[in-house]
């Protein structure tokens, strides 16, 4: 209790609110008696029941692939079939979907080709049911969180009703998507964080440990589903720092005790989630051991691990030597092999010499022979001559095997990237000029080291002009067979565009080694997959003329997402928040800011408050502050993101917004009721206010429920449609 | 009255010799040999263009920032604007007043030296520390290089430092003489300097935010001060403090709001007002702007559109410009060629007449607005205006075919409908050529479609597809013109779906032959229109913020992480024959010390903070306050001017770091004085510390001298000397091959 008092005196947020005292029935005090112990479980049960009912209602409909189910359903199938794929999100969500499908008897054979494909006999309900189950859990989680923070049953009920009857939350929970899974872990983390905070008066007790480690587990889960989970990690992190700061200021706590606190948090909130996160990836890579559509995104060394990939179980010579026949792969994501063919660059595109491109597929034209720059290698093919290895810093010549032309560059501008130099194939039977000389260098090595197949990252510097061989990633027009442009870049920056590695390697004079020796370690795989994911994420850029969703659209419910159906005869589902609820949330945020500023200024000015008002201001500032921080953390970063954004990215923030609504209205009504003198009127005003809000929510849900449960018939613009008159904004498309 | 007869007039002037000496040193270091080299140096090639355009009063848009900086550069004056800014290193012709054009940035750079001194003094540090700070700024090679040319950074840094200084002066006056004349002066100067900084470059916004936050924090402390009354009542108290006034919180709040928010915003607007008032001629960047804006400039579009009828009527002949203006501005176009029967990828087309968007003025850009119910293609008398919601047909002027769309996939965007001019092949593909006119920026639902001003969407009546520019350019068969499609799933508003009438006249010829002659003749009639300043401002501001430069690769671009350790440099200029060259290269000693100081500050602060939390006070309370406030300004200034660059995606250069490094340099004397005052407790330690300081400062001076040939560009160095200056492998110093 001592800490709590000190905290209150300082004006900070005490971690542990004063224990529930007997409610004082002061004159005019709006404090209602704490509800009897029995009502709380009953309320929880009611809320949970409603939540499950609303999410599982018409879960089978529509019996075809909706929206992003085409991605995530497909990825679930990949897990069941154990084929390797690539996605920009971490694996946990899709693994759980796959697991749910597997357990419910789905065999992974449905192709999930495009939205609108009928499921027919395939069992999809298990995967949808799993997502709906997690989506339903959000409501009780939010209810418990608000109850814990505000100690007010009406506030918690209001939050719960908002989430139960929001059409957006219902729709998002009913399909095979990552969002319900993400939000489940996210809310789980918030709930256990809040619970753990209220256990602060009895640290190291069983329940304290339980909630602390549960926070860690949920954090790992949230991060493992989508990188957006990082925001909740940040929220918990800030909360923990504040918590530790508070403990440090408590002089009755010895430094040893403080160290224990610190250690416990490091253990549960850093070590445990990290371990779980890595375990997820370990399972991911263990399950997906067959070659599949994601191979090309990964490095050659990684590909050698996949059953069915052409690099699997191959044995090649390890070190590069003169006379070796090799293929070179560009290290940019989905970079191609260095390629050339008999065709020449067309008139007007640089010098009219043989094309050099990057080609994504395996082909005989990808083969190059490494030769010394000064001597022809006819003698090297003689089996008796000694093997000479290529070393870092050597000057070499690359001869195209099929056409016997040398890799060549000169100061003509490249076909597409005008500031770079053109790369061509030049010379006859390996005889060219000094523009065919390239210096080979391994990244991060000193001179003299040997060059390893697959493992060495190599750059080729053109000796005469000093530029570096690179692939710009731009697709050539038809004359270049729509292969990727290869240029020589004069900007000497270390980007994957100008780095290459050797993939195939044929040299009969060298002993072959199995590629298993080159097997990347787990840490390397983990790092590589993260790099690939991050690059993939930042690669999702909106096109210039595309209409995209903007973050400021979201809180005002400006535009939804079409989940299913376009035409009048289709079964249409449209992801859109219940506008009444969303606008209530929006207004509440403004209201909350106003209340906070007033309260904070009043406290700072030293205005004397009654104990009820003090308690209210504590709830508003501390509980509300925590939730608002969550909202900000889950919303503001989107303004800075360059990638394509969608409406459903707002839903985690919407959860926080809804909790804030519950807390704020509770405080506001209590405050207003506080001015009324007889406690009966006060209670009437308080109760009436809540009832009005809840009725409003129920009525709006009655109006808008077809958005989630499906609309058939004419579009809303047609007056005969059941949704006629409900298209309040022109930007809604139902 | 005649007091001066009785007593002599005495003028006492207190001159801070330190300040004068520092200013003189600053001027010498920045102004010495200012005309050398008499050639275009680095970004002068870029800013010089704008100066020229100012001189010629030609409108331009610079996407890199607001116009105040360019205006200041143009103030140099005495220049007729006739110089071709096309190449770095080009010799200036005689008509370019190099000295006066470079003077202003150099002055701003020179004044940063005394400003640094004053800031440290206002932060309550010793004069010794203040002189140290000023000298470090003085001997900073990168700041010298950057201030000696027609570049904006030195002006920006000057305004930033001025803003910080005036805020500190204001804050120090706060306790004793609130609402006095000098209090007001410094408060207002803060606001003015902030808006000037933002007006020079948007980077100034960071410091403005920092100062706003600081002011907010200070005001928050004032709220907690119970001695201030709530209401605005200034009454002389009867007691011993009769001189003092009880000044209210509200007055303080309003004064700050006025000076720190309203005045800066007003000034910022006024920069644009002057900019737009000065530049009234059309110029190279016209096509970025909307037709309405272009029409407000003298020459260019205005010459054509001047005197056009305002209201579009049935029978009007119009050209339709896409509002987006990206990738290039273009007009709805058609020509006699048809879509190929089969595309290269095997898909089929309707084989009807192509409709494209064409980036050049052409007679094939003319369309006639026709009433579907009537046959005539001329404007009746009186003209019947087209209103929002009306259904029209668009007839291509030269070929008299109707604009049409149907359920055929577009050539490059197969998800959208093909748009064509209908040719009746007598197959079962009927004409679908009715379009509903929807005015996007209407005020009421009965608005008339106006030339230039109205932004219009064309909605296809049969399929409710919207006429849209897809942005892709067609292959050879479409002459590389831009593709136009009917977008079925129109999601909300996008500028690529909006069109406006640019050229317009009332059609008078009924016969096709006459009409062709009419279409070829230029438009002429009378009405002029003017945009309000606010409309122009919003458009220009929006364009500045959203315009993206495609070219993201530059030889000397760097990443934000390279700046701390100065792993990168920028070659500004190279003498055409000798080895003389100018580089943007910082003083290595200063940069290293600044990093060390920042690190030391961070560690010490953390240490103190943790100890204070456990109620252990290592340094006296006022020293702690001093430490925190100095760190807040200097360290905070460094952080806000540096960290945001990690989030930016634009091309970055070393000179973006200069404002941050200026603040970081100010932190060095702060840390040093703190170390000597509080951590060197014995006399011996103190004297050792002083000796170290002298040695360290000599090192700084030595590095300055070593690199000054690269900052000033003279004397010319031999290749071996240049090679010796290449202290880091990553520096790109140009060495001529012998």
Describe the 3D structure:
Chain B: Belongs to the glycosyltransferase 39 family. Chain B: This is Protein O-mannosyl-transferase 1. Chain B: Pathway: Protein modification; protein glycosylation. Chain B: Its main location: endoplasmic reticulum. The complex is a heterodimer of chains A (734) and B (738). Helices cover 43% and strands 12% of the residues of chain A. The relative contact order of chain A is 0.11. In chain A, the strands form 4 sheets. In chain A, strands 10-9-6-5-2-13 form a 6-stranded antiparallel beta sheet, with no helix packed on it. With 734 residues, chain A is an alpha+beta fold. Chain B is 43% helix and 12% strand. In chain B, the strands form 3 sheets. Chain B has a 6-stranded antiparallel beta sheet with strand order 9-8-5-4-1-12, with no helix packed on it. In chain B, strands 2, 3, 6, 7, 10 and 11 form a 6-stranded antiparallel beta sheet that branches. Chain B has a two-stranded antiparallel sheet with strand order 13-14. In chain B, β10 (466-473) and β11 form a beta hairpin. Chain B is elongated, with a radius of gyration of 33 Å. The chains are: A alpha+beta (734), B alpha+beta (738).
């Amino acid at each position: 209790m001592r800490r709590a008092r000190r905290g209150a005196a300082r004006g900070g947020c005490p971690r542990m609110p004063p224990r529930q005292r007997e409610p004082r029935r002061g004159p005019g005090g709006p404090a209602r008696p704490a509800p009897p112990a029995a009502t709380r479980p009953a309320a929880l049960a009611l809320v949970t029941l409603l939540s499950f009912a609303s999410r599982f209602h018409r879960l089978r409909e529509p019996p075809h692939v909706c929206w992003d189910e085409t991605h995530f359903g497909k990825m679930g199938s990949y897990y069941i079939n154990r084929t390797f794929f690539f996605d920009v999100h971490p694996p946990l969500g899709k693994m759980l979907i796959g697991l749910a499908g597997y357990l419910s008897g789905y065999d992974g054979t449905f192709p999930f080709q495009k939205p609108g494909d009928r499921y027919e006999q395939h069992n999809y309900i298990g995967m949808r049911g799993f997502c709906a189950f997690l989506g339903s859990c959000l409501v009780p989680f939010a209810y418990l969180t608000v109850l814990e923070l505000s100690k007010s049953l009406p506030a918690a009920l209001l939050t719960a009703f908002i989430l139960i009857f929001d059409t957006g939350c219902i729709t998002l929970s009913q399909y095979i998507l990552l969002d319900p899974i993400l939000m489940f872990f996210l809310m789980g983390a918030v709930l256990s964080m809040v619970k753990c905070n209220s256990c602060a008066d009895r640290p190291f007790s069983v329940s304290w440990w339980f909630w602390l480690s549960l926070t860690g587990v949920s954090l790992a889960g949230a991060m493992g589903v989508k990188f957006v989970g990082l925001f909740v990690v940040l929220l918990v992190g800030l909360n923990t720092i504040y918590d530790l700061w508070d403990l440090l200021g408590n002089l009755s706590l010895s430094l040893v005790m403080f160290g224990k606190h610190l250690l416990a948090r490091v253990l549960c909130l850093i070590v445990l989630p990290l371990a779980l996160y890595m375990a997820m990836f370990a399972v991911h890579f263990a399950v997906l051991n067959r070659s599949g559509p994601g191979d090309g995104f990964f490095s050659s060394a990684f590909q050698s691990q996949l059953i069915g990939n052409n690099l699997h179980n191959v044995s090649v010579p390890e070190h590069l030597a003169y006379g070796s026949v090799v293929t070179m792969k560009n290290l940019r994501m989905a970079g191609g092999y260095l390629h050339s063919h008999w065709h020449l660059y067309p008139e007007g595109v640089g010098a009219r010499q043989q094309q050099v491109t990057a080609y994504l597929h395996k082909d005989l034209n990808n083969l190059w022979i490494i030769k010394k720059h000064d001597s022809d290698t006819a003698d090297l093919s003689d089996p008796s001559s000694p093997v000479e290895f290529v070393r870092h810093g050597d000057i070499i010549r690359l001869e195209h095997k099929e056409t016997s032309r040398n890799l060549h560059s000169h100061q003509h501008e490249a076909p597409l990237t005008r500031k770079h130099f053109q790369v061509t194939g030049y010379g006859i039977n390996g005889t060219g000029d000094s523009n065919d000389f390239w210096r080979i260098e391994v990244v991060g090595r000193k001179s003299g080291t040997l060059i390893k197949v697959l493992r060495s990252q190599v750059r080729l510097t053109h000796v005469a002009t000093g530029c570096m061989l690179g692939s710009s990633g731009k697709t050539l027009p038809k004359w270049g067979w729509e292969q990727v442009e290869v240029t020589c870049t004069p900007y000497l920056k270390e980007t994957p565009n100008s780095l290459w590695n050797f993939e195939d390697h044929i040299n009969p004079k060298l002993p072959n080694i199995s590629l298993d020796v080159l097997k990347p370690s787990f840490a390397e795989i983990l790092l590589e997959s993260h790099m690939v994911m991050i690059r993939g994420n930042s690669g999702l850029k909106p096109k210039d003329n595309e209409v995209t969703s903007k973050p400021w659209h979201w809180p005002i419910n400006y535009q939804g997402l079409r989940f299913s159906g376009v035409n009048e005869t289709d079964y249409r589902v449209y992801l859109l928040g219940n506008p009444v609820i969303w606008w209530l949330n929006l207004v509440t945020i403004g209201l909350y800011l106003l209340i906070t500023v007033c309260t904070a200024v009043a406290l700072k000015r030293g205005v004397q408050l009654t104990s009820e008002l003090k308690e209210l201001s504590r709830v508003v500032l501390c509980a509300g502050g925590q939730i608002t921080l969550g909202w900000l953390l889950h919303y503001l970063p989107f303004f800075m993101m360059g990638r394509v954004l969608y409406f459903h990215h707002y839903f985690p923030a919407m959860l926080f917004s809804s909790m804030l609504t519950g807390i704020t209205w509770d405080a506001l009504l209590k405050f207003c009721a506080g001015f009324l003198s007889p406690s009966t009127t006060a209670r009437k005003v308080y109760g009436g206010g809540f009832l009005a809000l809840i009725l409003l929510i129920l009525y709006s849900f009655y109006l808008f429920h077809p958005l989630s449960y499906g609309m058939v018939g004419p579009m809303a613009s047609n007056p005969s449609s059941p949704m006629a008159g409900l298209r309040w904004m022109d930007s809604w498309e139902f | 009255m005649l007091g001066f007869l009785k007593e002599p007039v005495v003028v006492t002037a207190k001159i801070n010799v330190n300040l004068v000496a520092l200013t003189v040193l600053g001027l010498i270091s920045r102004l010495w040999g200012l005309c050398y080299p008499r050639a275009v140096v680095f970004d002068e090639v870029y800013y010089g263009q704008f100066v020229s355009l100012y001189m010629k009063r030609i409108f331009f848009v610079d996407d890199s920032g607001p116009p105040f900086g360019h205006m200041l550069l143009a103030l140099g004056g005495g220049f007729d604007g006739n110089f071709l800014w096309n190449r770095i290193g080009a010799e200036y012709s005689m008509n370019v007043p190099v000295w006066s054009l470079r003077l202003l940035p150099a002055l701003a750079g020179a004044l940063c030296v005394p400003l640094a001194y004053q800031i440290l003094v206002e932060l309550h540090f010793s004069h010794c520390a203040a002189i140290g700070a000023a000298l470090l700024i003085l001997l900073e090679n990168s700041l010298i290089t950057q201030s000696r040319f027609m570049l904006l950074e030195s002006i920006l840094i000057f305004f930033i430092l001025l803003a910080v200084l005036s805020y500190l002066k204001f804050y120090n006056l706060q306790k004793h003489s609130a609402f006095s004349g000098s209090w007001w002066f410094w408060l207002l100067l803060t606001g003015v300097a902030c808006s000037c900084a933002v007006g020079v470059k948007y980077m100034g916004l960071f410091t403005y935010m920092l100062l706003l936050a600081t002011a907010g924090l200070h005001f928050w402390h004032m709220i907690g001060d119970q001695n201030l009354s709530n209401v605005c009542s200034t009454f002389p108290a009867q007691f011993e403090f009769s001189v003092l006034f009880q000044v209210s919180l509200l007055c303080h709040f309003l004064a700050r709001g006025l000076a720190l928010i309203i005045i800066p915003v007003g000034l910022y607007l006024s920069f644009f007002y002057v900019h737009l008032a000065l530049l009234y001629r059309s110029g190279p960047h016209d096509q970025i702007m909307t037709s309405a804006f272009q029409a407000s400039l003298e020459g260019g579009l205005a010459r054509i559109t001047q005197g056009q009828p305002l209201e579009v009527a049935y029978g009007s002949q119009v050209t339709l410009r896409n509002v987006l203006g990206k990738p290039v501005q273009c007009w709805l176009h058609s020509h006699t060629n048809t879509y190929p029967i089969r595309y290269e990828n095997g898909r089929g087309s309707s084989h009807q007449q192509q409709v494209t968007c064409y980036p050049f003025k052409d007679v094939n850009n003319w369309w006639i607005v026709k009433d579907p119910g009537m046959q005539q293609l001329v404007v009746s008398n009186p003209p019947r205006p087209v209103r929002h919601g009306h259904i029209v047909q668009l007839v291509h002027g030269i070929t008299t075919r109707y604009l049409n769309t149907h359920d055929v996939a577009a050539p490059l965007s197969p998800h959208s409908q093909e748009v064509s001019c209908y040719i009746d092949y007598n197959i079962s593909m009927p004409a679908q050529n009715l379009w509903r006119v929807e005015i996007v920026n209407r005020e009421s639902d009965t608005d008339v479609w106006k030339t230039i001003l109205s932004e219009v969407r064309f909605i296809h009546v049969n399929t409710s597809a919207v006429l849209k520019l897809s942005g892709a350019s067609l292959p050879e068969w479409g002459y590389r013109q831009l593709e136009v499609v009917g977008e079925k799933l129109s999601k909300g508003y996008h500028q690529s779906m909006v069109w406006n009438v640019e050229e317009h006249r009332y059609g008078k010829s009924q016969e096709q032959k006459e009409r062709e002659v009419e279409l070829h003749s230029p438009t002429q009639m009378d009405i002029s229109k003017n945009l309000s300043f606010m409309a122009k401002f919003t458009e220009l501001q929006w364009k500045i913020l959203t315009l993206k430069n495609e070219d993201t690769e530059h030889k000397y671009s760097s990443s934000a992480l390279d700046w701390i350790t100065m792993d990168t440099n920028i070659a500004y200029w190279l003498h055409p024959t000798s080895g003389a060259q100018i580089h943007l290269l910082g003083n290595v000693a200063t940069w290293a010390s600044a990093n060390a100081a920042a690190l030391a500050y961070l560690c010490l602060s953390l240490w103190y903070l943790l100890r204070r939390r456990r109620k252990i006070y290592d340094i006296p309370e006022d020293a702690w306050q001093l430490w925190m406030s100095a760190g807040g300004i200097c360290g905070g200034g460094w952080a806000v001017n540096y960290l945001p660059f990690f989030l930016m995606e634009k091309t970055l250069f070393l000179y973006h770091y200069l404002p941050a490094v200026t603040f970081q340099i100010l932190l060095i004397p702060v840390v040093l004085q703190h170390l000597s005052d509080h951590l060197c407790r014995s006399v011996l330690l103190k004297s050792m510390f002083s000796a170290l300081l002298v040695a360290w400062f000599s090192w700084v001076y030595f590095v300055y001298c070593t690199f000054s040939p690269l900052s000033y560009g003279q004397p010319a160095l031999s290749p071996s000397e240049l090679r010796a200056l290449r202290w880091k492998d990553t520096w790109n110093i140009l060495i001529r091959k012998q």
